[in-house]
What does this fold into?
Amino acid sequence: MLPIKNVQGPSNPGYNTNPVPVPVITQTDTRDKWSKKMDFLLSVIGFAVDLGNVWRFPYICYQNGGGAFLIPYIVMAIFGGVPLFYMELALGQFHRTGAISIWKHICPIFKGIGYAICVISLYVSFYYNTIIAWALFYFYSSFASVLPWTNCDNAWNTENCTNYFLKDNVTWNNYSRSPAEEFYTRNVLEIHKSDGLSNVGGVRWQLMLCLFLIFTIVYFSLWKGVKTSGKVVWVTATLPYVVLFILLIRGATLPGAWKGVVFYLQPKWEKLFETSVWVDAAAQIFFSLGPGFGVLLALSSYNPFTNNCYRDAIVTSLVNCLTSFMSGFVIFTMLGYMAEKRNVNVEDVARDKGPSLLFITYPEAIANMTGSTFFAIIFFVMMITLGLDSTFGGLEAIITAVMDEYPEYLAHRRELFVLGLVVVCFLGSLSTLTNGGAYVVKLLEEFGVGSSIIAVGFLEAIAVSWFYGITRFSNDIKSMLGYYPGLFWKVCWVAISPAFLAYIIVSSLLKPAPLQLFDYKYPDWSITVGYIIGASSFMWIPIYMVYKLVWTPGSLKQVRPSNAAILNCQIHLNSVFHNS
It folds into this structure.
């Protein structure tokens, strides 16, 4: 057993400095720490607030009852998302280690969860940074007096290109394509040169150059650890809010903006009786806050031991949810403006979802208003910075997990390891840079993360609350904060939050949505490939369990000390109400 000692609160500015006797493992005394409290908070906010907040929440909100959707969203946040968010911050701060080696202290037989998290984070890096590369391509293209997606006079346009802005009596039919849509599909992606996943075509060198620049920024932001990334987020995490505020003011002054706001928030109370609405609310809050990805464990592991992680969890969760809500106004004021110009209903304009909302619908609205070049530039700067923050967090989760697991090899080779990781991520992204790369992005997004990360989060919650024990976990929090978590948090950790995740998993498996992008329907073989991708991350959990049980001497029936050391698990369900 490692020696422990009593220490005083840290002297870092902005941290809780109340002296509390706490056990600290001496081997982590040399661990890097955040220079300032705000470095940590901005890093967490930057990870949690990503591109999904800008496009996914507004779309999910209006699709599931408008203002009425806020009820299941808030309920799921209070009883599911925030408790899991708080749990991960507390775990990382107490054990001060990454997503793999932390299981030595919690429940070693679940160590496969850490490996699964790293594989999932790799899959995310394979497609997420490509989306940022698309934004960088748009950013470069925005430096023009007339934005290239404003009209139909370009080499990539077809006879179906229809520009209804600044023109009267324009006929819009099912075959019509806006200049913005053709710019995205035929110039940025060149998806028309691909027949689908069976023939994705060649690599787009322009996108490869954009991705290279993105990963260069990522490398020099992460190579020295939290000392450098903590400084970068002062720009990348705050700039999006400045841009969102500017776009909100501009959108509110456009004709027809009120139509979009009404459509966004008008309650449809009957939707509350549909199971799918609650599933969407649960999935949205989970993916928005980001527990289960190992990022919160990694970032909080660099905190001083007595930092108030409870307050951090509440503040950052609120910021995240309010950002999603505000983004809805930014998006739907523009959609209302477009509906006014097209002389159609808002729902006819708002049919696009996912990246299409960011790369077709919104740029189209920007291109046809005064000061379009300026607004296009700041919009895509916002998208790039939103994406970079999440990439910083995702890769830091892998870096911290692997370096903490193998310190004898990597402790003094961080720069080299980060370089190797970035190269692997770049090479893994090449398939998403092809003409049919958007199809690969959709497949990885759906199956590489999807149910796998929710299942990982479910097992993590079970392992901590049921096996490590809620009493022991509460004592850990007491040693850091000076007080026990309340009864509400204990009940959520033991029962409600795991049920919340199980609910999402079962619902998604029972009613899988058909996979489609534009007019391309994914063939059955590609769905099989998707399930294999999903299983390739989750499989490390049972594999590691079997490995540990087979290679440890003795049998479970004999209950030898070695087996007890493997499991290190006690089910403490009867202690939920202890110390409440």
Summary: Residues 437-481 form the longest helix (45 residues).
